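We keep the chain:
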Amino acid sequence: MSGAALELIGLRHTFFPGTPSEQRALEGVSLTVDPGTFVVVIGINGSGKSTLLNGVAGSVTLDEGIVRIGGRDVTRWPEHRRAGMIGRVFQNPFSGTAPHLTVAENLAIASQRGRSRQLFRLGLSSGRRAQLAEQLASMNLGLEHRLVTPTESSPAVSARR
C-alpha cells in the first residue's frame, strides 16, 4: 500500500481515436503526490490539464493507466464513488457552486460531499463560520471576509463573467 495521497501511473487518453479528429490528450502521464503537498498543473490550452484532472475525478474514462487515492486503486470507480475522496474547484466558478448561496453556505455543502445522502441542514453556527474563516485566512485569498457574500456577487466570480 502506497503512502502517497495521489498516485497516477501511465495515464493515457485519446479523444476520437481512429478518426481524422483524433487527439491524444494524455500519453503515459505518471505522478506521485505526497500527503500535504500542493501541486499546480500548468500548460497551454489543449495540453491535457482538464483531461488529467477529469481522469483523476472519474469524469473521463481513461484508456490506460492506474489512479490510486490514499493507496486505493480507484481506476475503475465511477465519479460519484470517488467524490468522497476528491474535492475540486472548477475554472468556471459557477460549476459546482450554488450562486445564490453565500460563500459559507457553498463551503458547508462542499464539506458534505461523499457522506451519506440525508436531509442536510444548511444552518451555520457562529462556531462553524469562525472555523471556515480561519481555514480561508490561511490561504491568503481574502475570502474569510466574504463568507456572507452570495457566490454570484464575489469579486473573483464576477471578474470571470
Summary: Residues 6-82 form a domain with the Rossmann fold fold (CATH 3.40.50.300). Confidence is low (pLDDT under 50) at residues 157-161. The CA atoms of residues 33 and 139 lie 20 Å apart. Helices lie at 49-57, 79-82, 103-110, 126-137, 155-158.
